Amino acid sequence: MPNTTCVVGLQWGDEGKGKIVDLLSEQADVVVRYQGGANAGHTLVVNSQKLVLHLVPSGIVHRSTRCIIAHGVVLDPVQFGEEIEMLRGLSIVCEGRLVVSERTHVVLSFHKLLDTSSEKREHGKLGTTGRGIGPCYADKAARLGVRVGDLFDPPALQRTLERSLEQKNAMLTGCYGERPVSIPAVLEECERHAKVLKPFVGDHLPGLLDAVEGGKRVLLEGAQGTMLDIDLGTYPYVTSSNTCATGASSGSGIPPRLIANVVGVSKAYTTRVGEGPFPTEQKNAVGESLRELGKEFGATTGRPRRCGWLDLCALKYAARVNGVTSLAITKLDVLDAMKTIAVATHYELDGARIDSFPTSSAVLARCRPVYREFPGWQMATHGARKLSVIPAKARAYLEFIRESVGVPISILSSGPGREDVIDTNG
Ligand code: GDP
Ligand code: IMO
Ligand code: MG
Predict the structure, then answer these.
(1) Which of 245, 262, 279 is the last residue of a domain?
(2) Can you tell me which atom of ligand 1 is nearest the CA of 300?
(3) Known catalytic membership, residue 76
(4) Same domain, 346 and 377
């Protein structure tokens, strides 16, 4: 029986996946990042020490866990090198424990320049993280990308860059008023990247498949969230990868039928960073309290996160398209002081109730959430370790979520620390 678990975000990212992966990694043999790149910011708080990881799997802090950055990721070697050094400073040595797939695509400085230049234009701003994610995945799809393995094959690299830079320079100079990028400069950059990556590069797949087929405990760490999925999210206000459980298979190479469990992570309310529709957003004192109490500032860019109530239309859709087998609900403590808590149970569009999640962002922006209100419990859930000791009103709120989504809550988090977990069977 496969023992493979995928952890996915069910909202617009920042659900607390890093914390949940850290908790589950204690029992894991292998932890894999399979999509996204340094746009992710996954926070772990261990012994009151905060750690933010962008590329290295969150399982790295458990010293007996092996980690993989698989081919679905787009890897920025500069960020990667900084992260390896940061971890070394914490006495966490990655060499020998972390494999980067030779097939992983490399984010180069011109990808970041294209990303930030595109965001500077008046029209079509998406509010990206500026980490070069979209341009790098675009190159991958256009078969113009540089893969980690290519860094060690200068003639092949040169040929790829000749094809790619012709197009990039036309765009940089013609559309964005930037200076062109030269092949020697990029080759030099790639030489530096090769040095940083060399101790980690390999073909992760045979070892990973051996682990899965051998019943080892494999954890797949999703980045971003379902609503940012390039196919199923709020297009075009999405990232450029499949953030859903489907992406776990294509991005890691594990066959779909061997992924046994999908843990969907959701906050007890909702946040979003960047542009795009967000039906339950609270542009008022409620939103400000959620931001302040939840410390809702981006782990990657530091931008204030947009905040609002839990959206069950979006959550039910997300749970379904991911086939989640259980829910991890985070940040319950952020609601502790609220007098009243609202949850969107459905949307109305042009005065009529709609039951399916819209495919179009323009339509979603016209949807009006219909709320059900719950009385706040106004007592601390932070510090509680068992479900039976938290206020009945908090349990009623959680039960409503569980029943609406139709999936059990297996993990309940009520504080940023590793120890801030409430036993849902206790
Ligand atoms: P990720 O991208 O999904 O890993 O989430 P982030 O790390 O970007 O954002 C989640 C933030 O919430 C981090 O600052 C976490 O330390 C924090 N966090 C996670 N779970 C909880 C919780 O239950 N309560 C509180 N107050 N903070 C939490
Ligand atoms: P984690 O893994 C929250 C958002 C950006 C922007 C959109 C596209 O920490 O949950 P991109 O740079 O990917 O081209 O930006 O996606 N975004 C995230 N929002 N958490 C993330 O990652 C995100 N990664 C990207 O804000 O709206
Ligand atoms: Mg994050």
Answers:
(1) 262
(2) 8
(3) no
(4) yes
